[in-house]
Amino acid sequence: MRQIDLPKVYLVAKTMLEPDGLEAYLRDIGNPDWKTDPNAADGENLIEAAGRMCYRSWQPYDPEKPEASNPNVANVRKGNDAYIGNVLKSGHGSILEHVNATFICRNVSRVFTHELVRHRAGMAYSQESLRYVRLDDLPFWIPDSARANAEAQSKFEEVIDFLENTQKELAGIFGMADIEDFTTKKQLTSMFRRLAPIGIGTTIMVTGNLRAWRHIIAMRTSSHAEEEIRIVTGQIAEICKEQFPNVFQDMSFDSREEAWIFSHSKV
Ligand SMILES: Cc1cc2nc3c(=O)[nH]c(=O)nc-3n(C[C@H](O)[C@H](O)[C@H](O)COP(=O)(O)OP(=O)(O)OC[C@H]3O[C@@H](n4cnc5c(N)ncnc54)[C@H](O)[C@@H]3O)c2cc1C
């Protein structure tokens, strides 16, 4: 058994602006009096551009710039923080869907991945294949709730060691070392995994748009959610807050509940 200290999250990609394209568009609509906010993340500037494009609210009305302004708009908000703050308040969250963040979640269990993939809207997943990857050791995170009890911890270790040996014994029974045909190896590997524990450590890559991440963080760091998914989505929340402070400006850590909460839910 390879004991895992803690599941870990890595931010591996996020949406970036293509500044030349955005500038060319702004030039073509008459050079509005608007610039990307240097204090905001690329993705946050993209969200603001999406919103301003919808309402033609790049700047207060100027009849000389009919494609960049509109007669209904006399004042515009300044700064990405204030702009996105108003979007969150009014619940116009669809523009948050333009920005993605991709994470690799390492040493997470199939308990966790099964819960995560229930989130469908705005999400993409790639999960380590246990048909291809044969289990010769069993990486395993023992939850804190089990570690807190010495008898429970030793029961976990005993069962995992037994299941790990079972994987090796099955490989021996079927002579895996001598099989060259990959299809046969895959079929057998898939059969063996039925005797692997659902708590086995594995890896998943997940991409979500920021509207979806807000929803998932709220649901899955809640005290009603499961121990492991709370830890992993808690790490995702911290990264999102750091990377996209304006989009997550209304998210704060409630130390009593030990959960990330939002002033504006379901934007
Ligand atoms: C504490 C907790 C306990 C749970 N217990 C169980 C359980 O016992 N059994 C179980 O099966 N599941 C359980 N779940 C999973 C839960 O039911 C959802 O499947 C999961 O959280 C995905 O969330 P979501 O439905 O908001 O989907 P997401 O894909 O995250 O969707 C985001 C939002 O988009 C909208 N949306 C998405 N798809 C549709 C659609 N097809 N039609 C209309 N609107 C849509 C909804 O507003 C939805 O909230 C639990 C979840 C939690 C957090």
Q: What does this molecule look like?
A:
The protein has 267 residues and is of the alpha+beta class. It has helices at residues 19-28, 42-55, 80-90, 110-116, 144-147, 150-173, 182-192, 210-220, 227-243, and strands spanning 2-3, 8-14, 100-109, 123-127, 139-140, 201-209, 251-254, 259-262. Helix 2 (42-55) crosses helix 3 (80-90) and helix 8 (210-220) packs antiparallel against helix 9 (227-243). The two termini are 43 Å apart. It binds flavin-adenine dinucleotide.
Strand-helix topology:
Elements: E1 2-3, E2 8-14, H1 19-28, H2 42-55, H3 80-90, E3 100-109, H4 110-116, E4 123-127, E5 139-140, H5 144-147, H6 150-173, H7 182-192, E6 201-209, H8 210-220, H9 227-243, E7 251-254, E8 259-262
Parallel strand pairs: 1-5
Antiparallel strand pairs: 2-3, 3-6, 4-6, 7-8
Helix pairs in contact: 2-3, 8-9
The protein binds flavin-adenine dinucleotide (FAD).
